[in-house]
Amino acid sequence: MPETDLILLGSLLVSAFLAATLLPGGSEAAFAGLLVVRPELALPALVLATLGNTAGGMSTYALGRLLPRKELPPRLELVRRYGSASLLLSWLPVVGDGLCAAAGLLRLNWFACLVWMAIGKGTRYLVLAWALN
After folding, report:
1. Are 121 and 78 contacting, i.e. CB atoms less than 8 angstroms apart?
2. Around 28, how many Cα atoms within 13 Å sit in the side-chain half-sphere?
3. Going residue by residue through the chain (133 aa), what tens digit of pLDDT does each one get?
4. Is 6 left (phi over 0), alpha (psi -120 to 50) or beta?
5. In this structure, how many other beta carbons lie within 10 angstroms of the beta carbon of residue 96?
6. Residue 114 contacts residue 89 (beta carbons within 8 Å)
7. d(C-alpha 126, C-alpha 56), whole Å
8. Is the pTM of this model over 0.85?
9. Contact residues for 24 (Cβ-Cβ < 8 A; gap 6+)
10. Sign of the Cα pseudo-torsion (92, 93, 95, 98, in order)
């Protein structure tokens, strides 16, 4: 693989990670831009964007887990009710970060959170890739 492809894919990975943390930004534009310029990199781009975005979401989960567990606010009811499956929506702007942090605060099973989060985030990138074809 040429060095330029590795740089593009590495940049996408970093962009996807940072976009899933509490920092502002979105990785969809970087993902779409890469697919427009280098459509043959669709599969590695999909895998790396999903991996980076999921890792970023899990870092927010970990931060939530570090918070002291006092009286839980009623806003966490959705996550409490649906558990780790609520992280299918972790790709949503603004709300997704809150869902990840809430899952950590509620001490939901990390592996189940990881799986549901990866499915939701990966599906978003898959739909975006499909829309660009």
Report:
1. no
2. 16
3. 789 999 999 999 999 999 988 677 789 999 999 999 999 999 999 999 999 999 999 999 999 999 887 777 777 888 989 999 999 999 988 788 889 999 999 999 999 999 999 999 999 999 999 999 8
4. alpha
5. 22
6. no
7. 18
8. yes
9. none
10. positive
Tokens 């739909």 -> residue: 127
Task: Kindly list the distances between the CA atom of residue 30 and the CA atoms of 59, 83, 98, in Å, as whole numbers in the listed order.
Answer: 21, 31, 23
Query: Apex CA 133: angle with CA 1 and CA 119, to 5°?
Result: 75
Rounded to the nearest 10 degrees, what angle do helices 110-132 and 95-105 cross at? 160
Q: What share of the chain is helix, strand, coil (3-state, %, to 5)?
A: 80, 0, 20
Which residue in this structure is represented by tokens 């780790």? Answer: 84
Rounded-to-integer distance, Cα 16 and Cα 10, Å: 10
Q: Name residue, tokens 């990840």.
A: 100
* C-alpha 124 chain-centroid distance: 9
Q: Which two tokens stand for residue 74?
A: 């009623």
Dihedral sign of CA atoms 105, 108, 114, 117 in order: negative
